[in-house]
Each structure stands twice: as C-alpha cells, then as structure tokens.
User: What shape does this take?
Amino acid sequence: MPLLEVDRLDVGYTIPGEGLLSRPRILPIVREASFDLDAGRTLGIVGESGCGKSTLGRAILRLNKPTGGKVIWQGEDMASLPAETLRRKRAELQIIFQDPLAALDPRMTVLASVTRPLVTFAPGLSRRDREVKAREALERVGLGPDFLGRYPHELSGGQAQRVGIARALVGGPKLVVCDEPVSALDVSVQAQVVNLLMDLQDQLGLALIFISHNLAVVRQMAHEVVVMCLGRVVEKAPRRAFFDRPLHPYSRALMDAVPEPDPKRERARRGTAITGEIPSVLNPPAGCVFATRCPLVQPRCHKERPELRGFAGGRQAACHFIEGAT
Amino acid sequence: MPSTPMTADALLSVRDLRVTFRLPQAEIRAVDGVSFDLNRGEVLGIVGESGSGKSQILFALMGLLAGNGRTAGEAMFGGRNLLALSPRELDRVRGSEMSIVFQDPMTALNPYKRVGDQLAEGLIVHRGLSRDAAWKEAVAMLDRVRIPDPVARAKAYPHQFSGGMRQRVMIAMALLMKPAILLADEPTTALDVTIQAQVLDLIAELARETGTAVILVTHDLGVVARACDRVLVLYGGQVMEEAAIDTLFDRPRHPYTQGLLEAMPRLEGEETARLGTIPGTPSARRGPGCPFAPRCDRSIAICSQEAPMLLTNGSHRIACHVEGADAAA
Assistant: This one.
C-alpha cells in the first residue's frame, strides 16, 4: 500500500455566477489528477503559473476541499475523517511555503513558532518537552541556540525557510508538501535548502511533494515527475527517463525554455520559444490543454481531449500523437 | 581606475561608480567603485544576488535613486556625465536616449489609460508628433514586439493584457524613442519560463537589429547565457569578474562565480547527489577587504584586509587576491 494515493482528484473554487440571479459556479482548477507516493520518495510537480500545481498540493492536505475524487492516506479516505481526527492527522502531513517570511508570525520568536504546532499535535506534552522537541527540530535544520529568541525580521530568507522547515518537522511528519520552497531564495542559498531537504529525506524517510516551476531543481530533488498544464496532468514519468527524453510536446517546450548556464545550448535555442499565451483557466480549450500553443497541433487536438496513456518504462503522457503506447 | 583602459568607441563609460544611502545610524555602500564600458548593439549582463547593488547601478544611471541616495564617479554618455546632469538635462536624456524596463510591468503602466495612449504620449511630448501619427507608430511598435492584433490591442487597458504581453508593451514603450541604451532590471523574473524565453529572445533580437545597447540586470546566470554577450558578476557592490559569456561559463575564475555555477541545478549533464554550496548568506555588512571573503573557502589573510584590484587579462577581468595572483604569475 502506498503512503499516499491521489485518485482522480478534482479541485475547484466557487466563483459568482454569470448573471445577476444565477447561482455560484465551480471553477475547476485541477482535474482528474492521479498519482501514488511512497515513503522516502519525492514527487516533483511542475508547470507554469495557473496550472493548478499549488492548488493540488494544498488539496492533498485538505487545505482546499476537493470537488471530486479521493485522497487516500495510509489506506484511509481523508474525506471520511472527522474534523478533529483530520487536525491530528496533519502532524503527519505538513507543508512549507514559497515566501518564508510571510509564513511566519512576525510577533512570535523562532522558538515559539516551531513549538506552536505541538500544542495541537501533542497536547499531552508539557511546555518544557515541547520546547525540547522544537530545539531538536531547529538543530536538524542547522539553526543553533542563538536563533531561538529571534523574530522573523531578524532572519535572512534562507534562515526563515529553515524555520518553516523545522516547524513542519516538529510533529514528526511522514509527508511534507513543499510549495516552491526555494523560489524566493538567492541561488547560493537555494542550493543549501535543496541539499537540506534531501538530507532530511534520507535521515527521516520523508515523502516529499515538491512543487516548482523550476525544472532544474525538480531534476535535482525528485524521483518522479508530474507535469501539469491548465489543471491537467499531461505527463508522468520517472525522473531519469523524463529528463532524458520528455514525451509530451508541452514538457519539451518547458524544457527548451528553461535557460541553462550554457551559452552554446542557449544560442542554439534562441528564437525557438513557443509562441502564444497561456489560455485562461476561466475559458480552457475544449480539446487538449496545450493545443493553442503546441508546435505539433492537428485539427483533432482542438476537438478531442487526449487521455493519459501508458508508455514503456512506467511513463504516461496525454497526447494523441506519441507513438508506442503500451 | 588604472585597471580599466578607456575604450574610445564605448557608448557608455562608467568609472568608479559609487552609490551610498544615508540612514540615521549608518551609511550603506550599495555600489562600491564599479567600472565598465557598454558598446553599441551589445547586451551586457549584470548578475548578482540580493544586495549586490545590481539594480542600484541602473537607478543611478537613470537618476532614479531614492531620496537618501548619493552617487560619485562618472558615467560618460555622448560627452556628458550622466551623474552630473541637471534634472532638466536628465529629463531630455531619459525616454529619448535612454529607457528603462522594470521587473513588474503592471505597476509601471497606468491602469486608467489605454495602452496605445500611453505609448503615444512619449512620441507627442519628446518628438512632437501629432496624435494620429503617434498612435500609428505605437501600433507599429506593438506589432514589432509581437503583440497579436496590435490595432485592437492598442485600445485595450493594461489589465486586459497577460504578464508577458505587459512586459512586451513596456519594451515597446522603451524602444519607441529609438534609445541608444535600454536598461532592463530583471525584466523576465515575474514571467513563466516559456514567456521569459520569448521576451529574452525579443530583447536580444532588437538589440541586434536596431543597434540599441542593453544592460540586462538579473540574478539568473541562465538568463545571462540566453541573452547576453558579456557579463559583470557583482558581489557586495563590487565587480568580482567580467568576461564574454563563453569565457565566463567555460572558465570562471573567481571563487564566487565558480561557487554560483556549482550551486545551480542543471537540466542537462551528469546528475549530482548534492549541489555545491556557498556557506552563509549575502550580507550588507562590509569590512575593508573583499566583500566575498567572509563566505569564500579560499580566502587568505589579505582578503579581509584589502579589497582586491580588478585585474585585466585580455578581455577577462577578475578581482581576487588568490586567483588574480595566479594570472599575474
């Protein structure tokens, strides 16, 4: 049994209806997302802004309520859990955010921020024991005793993100959803945090969902990659196979667009960027979500949405024109 | 400034540029003796982390520093020192000979005015065109930066554009006056990668076609590799290394540049178990020595006592007591 099973998950937001008297409607953000995740593994979720990757990550923790499908955690349907049980369960499923300073209460010290989750997750512990655990968690992320009394404004971005990680770890999670955790950090600091997350995974056997627009960071961190485009999973593959040869034209376009610190590669790619704008989620294309920008588009793509099909090596992709489906 | 020979044909020559900000308790040296030349039609990258002073260089050139900011040094452009111009002279240079594009295109556009009117305004004010002629030229420029259906889009308001289109509108606006120099401050940082690639290619192409020289400020060495011809690596307000991009990426010499490149995860090439790291964080506090010394694993005694000179080796320049000595030997 996998640690986490996400089964045809739909997530939407309620928006006002079109007319004055019309009823509110649900705007679908994520549609039919499915994947499994085991302990000690990292799933990378990549895609452009508005593709639904953060919404999907939050829905796994039920920070957004799914509108369809299931999230099964260690064999239990999360939707069936009473609110009180769910709150306790969250000790096992934690999240870290992109803006580490915004995610911390400016009036709480580092120690108080990291101790706070234990009030909910371990109400039986004495205050003293909670602080001992918090110090341990901070130690793990490389923040020593002189950080305990600091306030968020006294921290650099990298230090604040380490506090966010310690706060996620203090309850002893099995899964941590990392929502663009290094995007706001300087390159030299980003590398420190990426390495830290990989070390923590090795030490604690954590499962990670690593959400990022940065494909290179995902290649460094993930065991498996999910590519999302306008709310749909368009490709899913083991890391090495994916980065050797992405199957979906959208995955290829993303990879070609990422600027690498390699002038020869970049000169060869100048002028090859795909054209067109990302369609609005309010008005997604009827057929393939990538049809409006795809260099290989055919008439069929505008009418008929391709389903995810299986390919050799445990890969899946949703495109009418990839040969060799299994 | 003996380390930087003057090139006669440089479009812009910056010498020993300093930018300081006065705070109640302290003085911040944001840019600390930066010298470089910019040539016609060239895309010069300035790359650095937060606090490196990269954006302040652009603001100093455009006269856009915050009220408590002071400049020293020289920025020669067309026989004038930009840093010594009166506000009126500066106004004439800005917008017509030199333009700037910012990171966030939404806050740089007026939300209440149609995009075409905002573009036309500069042409009417600076070049005295009639409203009709200015509007026509604005539409042509929107087409040039590949805004689809430019005739209709000129009548739209900024909120009706996507982020990538807004940035292209800003580039159109900056280029309308056919400036000799375009300054771009992290112009693609807020954009998705596919849109970033379009915008970077557009900037590089326009520079080649129109001869406009570009200074592109970015934190991303990948962006430098995609769009620039030459690059300055900045740390703590000082130039650590300068080279043509092929030289810099093939043979980075400065420990900071090397550290940055090793810290970058890659899409291609061998997988690494862990990324290279530079210890610590970029800091604004600075002693008398090399600004990178506190984080440098190769620093020696002199590094924290004396700032290294920027030494020239062909077209490669590097400021490092350790590596620089090797080059001289």
Observations:
- The CA atoms of residues 14 and 26 of chain A lie 4 Å apart.
- Chain A touches chain B through 49 residues (CB under 8 Å).
- The first strand of chain A starts at residue 4 and ends at 15.
- Chain A has eleven helices and twelve strands.
